[in-house]
Structure of Transcriptional activator feaR:
Amino acid sequence: MARSVGAEIDEAPGQHKCSLIASESALQGSITQLRLGDLHISKVSANAHALELKLGGAARRDAHVLIAFQCKGTSTLVNDGLSLELRAGEMLALSIRQELRIVNPSNVQQHFIWFEKPRQANRMMEGVVSHRRFGPAPMQRLAFSFVERLFNEPGLCNPESGQFFAQAMIKLLELALKETAVAKPQVEPNRPSREMVLQFVERNLRDPKLSPDTISRALGWSKRTIYRAFKGGNGESLNGYLWRRRIEQCAQELRGPSDLSITGIAYSFGFSSCPHFSRLFKQQMGASPLQYRRGAY
C-alpha cells in the first residue's frame, strides 16, 4: 500500500508542495541535490515510489520548466492531466502550470533540473506547448555526462563556479532541444538504438556490475536486442567496448590531478582485479598504469 514518507515542502513565493510516496512498505534509495545559481538539480535513486508536485499562488501565472533525465527504469509522468512515459536513455522537457505526478513502478535512477525562474527557460522552450520528449543524441548525451560529473565531484560546485555551470547547463539543454527539433523521426521509435546503449554505458562506467545483462534489464529489452542495437559500429563487441571505455577513463584519471591510488582508480571504474586491470591497461595503452601515470613511456 502506498504511503507518504516525505514531508510537504512549502516555499513562500509560489507555495509549491512536493510529496514523496512509497509504493512498498519501505522506501530504499537516496535523493541528492545541487544548486547551480538559479538551477536546482536533483538525483533520485530509489525503489518503487511516486513524486507529486503542486504549484500554487503566483506560480501558476508562469509555467515552470522541469527537465527529466531517465537513467534507469521506466516512469510515467502525468503533467497537468497529460500522461507521458519515459524510458531509460530518454530526456523530457516539461512546462508545468499546476501539478505533476511521477510514478515509478520499480527501481529507477533519474536526474531533474528545475528552473527557479521560469523566464530563464523561455528561449529554450520556445515552440514547446506542454512537453518535448526525445531519445539519445550527441548533445543530450553530453548534457547527461555533465550532470553526472557534477554529482560525482560535488566539490566543483561553489558560489564562484555555480553561476558559470548554470549558464553552461542551460546552453547544453538549448542545443539538445534544437538537436531534437531537427532530428529525423525514427522508423521504429520503440526499438533501442546504438545511441541508447552507448549513453547508458557512459553513465554507468563506474558500476562494477555493468554488463550486457544489467543493460538489458535497465533498458527493458532482451540481450539479443541489445546486441543487435549495438551492432553496426567498427565490429567491436559490446563487452570489448565496455572495457575499452573503462580503460580510457582510467587513463584520463591517471594523467589528471586525482589523489587516488592506481588501485583506487581501477576500482572506481568497475575493476575488481588489479592484475586484470594492469593487463588490459598495458594491452590498450602500451604501458603499465604506473608508467603511464609517470609519463615514462
Q: What stands out?
A: Residues 159-182 form the longest helix (24 residues). Residues 95 and 129 are 7 Å apart (CA to CA). The chain is about 35% helix and 25% strand.
